[in-house]
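1st attempt posting a full record on here, be nice pls
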Amino acid sequence: AGVSGPQSEADGSRDTSGTHLEMKLWDIYYPEGWTENEDYKGDSETSSYGQLDYKQGDTVLAAVNISATVEDCNDYRDFLHTSGIDAHALAVDKTVEQKNIGGVPCVFSETTSWGEPVLTYMGRDVGSGTTVKVSISGEYSDPAVEKLISNLAFHLKDTGNEDYPWPWEGEAFTTDHEH
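the predicted structure (as tokens):
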């Protein structure tokens, strides 16, 4: 089982100057102006998460939360549903716009949290059974945010995982039971 998917393509375009933050499931290089939020960080074989803050003085202009979690596909499919993303259009018709984030194709959704704008990217690497998520709060359209995210790479091992069927693929069942 090697490293899965297209992130090796993304590696060639990364700017590897700056400070390197290396987690078990992802790594990123961040330039001056960004700082690690030490209060939001965790790393294990099945879950890596962290936050980088873009500050001007003491004011956080943007916060970027990055996570990769080896789990079933429930959170990912729930995100699709709550974001109003048509799962069939994504999985079968291939008509939902996605962006390659760290080597994983991700859907995205704009929302607000506590009155702040939030842009969330979420993707599913089926072979590794991993859901990736990058949420940007604050000034997510700032060019510094795009530059930072382009320096992210997920490191996911294909374990042969298969997600359970989409609703349109499964067999219908009923809870009615005749005795």
